[in-house]
Design a protein that fits this description.
heterodimer; A: about 70% helix; B: about 300 residues; TIM Barrel
């Protein structure tokens, strides 16, 4: 890019092919196997906390998410994505910041509260989390990438961001929740643009996650 | 220059035999054409003759450390060299493309064969020398043949650096690049002010703005021209796919749309070479085959452009 960067379209800035992007996930999964099983099990435990919240378990859930943001930044963004996308170098610190925000806002001075009663906000939040945990890995199968290219929660950025959006969508207090929502939403928007530019089916899914989280957050509490 | 015959390694010899075997499987006219070296044109005033078709690396060689894709890129470069290609172009902006090229050059023992064209791409000219050194390390070569200021970013400071490097023999040729038809006024200004060896710009059968001022100026000033985005990053090929080549394309031995487009580009008297990028060995062969006689004359070039415009 030169100084006339505003004249570029997303496809002018696309640096890699769909094949290379798909292979990122295949190689990542190969390298980490069987961590996927552990990640899914931890995700399942986190879902139980969302369904039956209590203050101590909520703090553990938030800590788990913080660890996942750091792990994904290191294992996926830094080790795999950054070599083919120089822009990722600027995003990695944001993942670190999200982890710090989760720890700071989730564990200090009252922390976060998860609602125990059903509401539209809670329904959307849990729906987002369930999608990120159980359905998003299957998108790879539907789009032809195969299960070997599945994006698993806690190991890859999209489902992690969507799951975090789910938690941020339903949690209280609102100001802390909004703070936790910004970086996952930005990542999902970036992912949407990337997938759209690559011509991937299901590119709109990260965008839909952001819309769902914002809808939940803006939905009247009662 | 290509290495002397006695320096051929067993791997290279085997590679050549494999390439010859693959060539023998193609239709006879194509196979016969590929036994000849590609056409060359001198980079003006340098005494260096470059094959008219080079190899770009934007997107196609950005494969990270994926061993499967690295080997696929190595096969592409092997075919490129087997067909007589030399100029490979990259940039620190292209992700891991430089490292991919370095990997393949090492595997193919082709450091002596390649004409290495890279770029400097940083807004801070003080960072230029370190970036160039890092790029050279990725390529695994003793020096670059050509260094270009990528998209005019920080061009004044970088050209000072490159001119000093050229004076001291640390690079042979220097240039500037632009793409997508951007900032042609500034390119023209630099071409008039600075003793460039080359300018890289977007030129193809539909993106012809450069014909107005930059290509004539390049001829007038004795500056080489490297044409990028010959296929508009596949968009042009996709647009033409399924549409018939005109029967008279046979007169210039253009068997495919890719060859039709490449022959149009390299037949412009100001264009030194074109740098299509690809991940396919067969496309490399197809592209290099375009750099062979006959090329279209001016009348045929107009006919070609009119035909594509009418599709």
């Amino acid at each position: 890019m030169g100084s006339a960067w505003w004249t570029y379209r997303p496809d002018d800035l696309l640096m890699f092919s769909p094949r290379v992007y798909a292979r990122l996930f295949e190689l990542h999964n190969q390298a980490l196997w069987p961590a996927q099983l552990i990640a899914l099990a931890l995700g399942g435990m986190a879902l139980v906390v969302l369904l039956r919240p209590d203050p101590r378990a909520t703090r553990l859930l938030v800590l788990l998410l913080a660890v996942a943001w750091v792990f994904v930044a290191w294992a996926f963004l830094w080790q795999r994505f950054a070599p083919i996308h120089w822009g990722i170098d600027y995003i990695i610190p944001l993942f670190g910041l999200q982890a710090l925000l989760l720890v700071a806002l989730g564990c200090l001075r009252g922390g976060l509260r998860l609602p125990g009663h059903w509401s539209m906000r809670r329904g959307i939040g849990i729906g987002l989390f369930v999608y990120a945990l159980a359905l998003h890995p299957l998108v790879a199968v539907v789009t032809g990438r195969g299960l070997s290219g599945a994006e698993v929660i806690g190991l890859t950025p999209d489902p992690l961001a969507m799951a975090t959006l789910g938690v941020a969508a339903m949690t209280e207090p609102a100001r802390r929740a909004w703070s936790l929502l910004v970086i996952p939403a930005l990542w999902c928007l970036l992912s949407w643009i990337t997938l759209e530019t690559l011509g991937e089916r299901g590119a709109w899914l990260p965008l839909l996650a952001v819309v769902a989280a914002l809808t939940a957050r803006l939905w009247p509490a009662r | 220059m290509p290495p002397p015959l006695h320096s051929l390694s067993r791997r290279r010899l085997l590679g050549g035999l494999l390439a010859a075997a693959a060539v023998s499987a193609l239709p006879s006219r194509l196979a016969l054409a590929q036994t000849a070296e590609p056409l060359t044109r001198e980079l003006p005033g340098t005494g260096v003759a470059l094959p008219r078709v080079g190899l770009g690396s934007w997107i196609t060689f950005n494969v990270g450390d994926d061993p499967v894709l690295l080997e696929a890129c190595t096969a592409v470069m092997a075919a490129f060299f087997a067909e007589g290609g030399r100029l490979i172009d990259s940039s620190p902006m292209y992700g891991s493309s430089q490292a991919t090229i370095g990997h393949a050059l090492k595997q193919l023992e082709a450091v002596e064969r390649v004409y290495a064209a890279d770029k400097v791409w940083t807004s801070n000219p003080a960072e230029g020398p370190a970036q160039i050194a890092a790029s050279r390390q990725e390529w695994g070569i003793p020096r670059f043949d050509m260094l270009q200021v990528h998209n005019l970013l920080g061009w004044e400071g970088h050209l000072e650096t490159l001119m000093a490097m050229k004076a001291s023999g640390d690079v042979r040729h220097l240039g500037i690049t632009t793409s997508h038809g951007r900032r042609h006024d500034e390119v023209e200004h630099i071409m008039r002010q600075v003793p460039l060896d080359s300018v890289q710009l977007t030129y193809n059968i539909v993106d012809r703005e450069a014909e107005q001022r930059l290509l004539p100026l390049a001829r007038e000033r004795g500056i080489g021209v490297i044409a990028n985005r010959p296929f508009q990053r596949k968009r042009l090929i996709r647009h033409l796919e399924g549409k018939p080549l005109p029967p008279w394309a046979a007169e210039i031995h253009a068997d495919t749309w890719a060859q039709f487009i490449l022959k149009f580009i390299i037949s412009h008297p100001a264009v030194t070479c074109v740098i299509p990028a690809t991940t396919q060995v067969e496309h490399v062969r197809e592209n290099l085959a375009a750099a062979r006689e006959p090329l279209p004359d001016e009348t045929m070039r107009r006919r070609m452009a009119d035909y594509v415009r009418g599709l």
